[in-house]
Design brief:
By secondary structure, the chain is an all-alpha fold. The protein contains three helices and no strands.
Amino acid sequence: MATRKQILLRLDPAVHDALQRWAADDLRSVNAQIEVLLRKELKAAGRFPSQAGPLARPGRPRKEGATQEADETL
């Protein structure tokens, strides 16, 4: 998996609170919500990079070698 870029983002507290509520409604972190919104706008503007990877799936990353059968037993 490619490494993710880290950035410092300064937001108005009211904007952050609104993002936090929206992210909670969608069961996402604020970081994931911002990425979803940025990707949507990049696509709408025709500027989405073709080499961009998919969004990370929600939840914990799977362990190396984990199978679907192991998930079904839970």
